[in-house]
Amino acid sequence: MAPTRDEKLQAIISQRSRSLIKLVSLVKKDIETKLMDRLHSMGYENFKMGDMVCLANVQLDGTINNELAKKAKITKQAMSKVVKSLETEGYIYTRKHETDNRASVIYLTDRGKDLAITAFECVREIQADYVSIIGEDDSEKLREILTKLLTKLDML
Asked: Can you give the pTM of this predicted structure?
């Protein structure tokens, strides 16, 4: 006899806690919470995790919005909103592109550079906390596995 709908659902529910998606999601949430707590305590109260998609991809010599959106894997419209928010907060500034009048080049302000440096240092601390929990060998294995997965998904 085939399992009932409730039996199928119960089997799924019993496996939820070991779902790869759930585990990765929980680690991501933990990283984001710890990072935001640290940044907010350091004076970056108006910075939001969603702003990281821009901050993490701006190059020193500037980056156009379309390139930021492509790197962040979000729409140009969504990136434009993030850019406007970060510009309002004083983390970035824009200038018209030298050869393409339709495009603006986005640059980090000194405040944005300080935030990027601070965020990287916080991420390094969070990562060190994780390494202290699972060990250097397992951390390296995890890095290799995630790199392999993201490479196969063409996301690196």
From this structure: 0.85
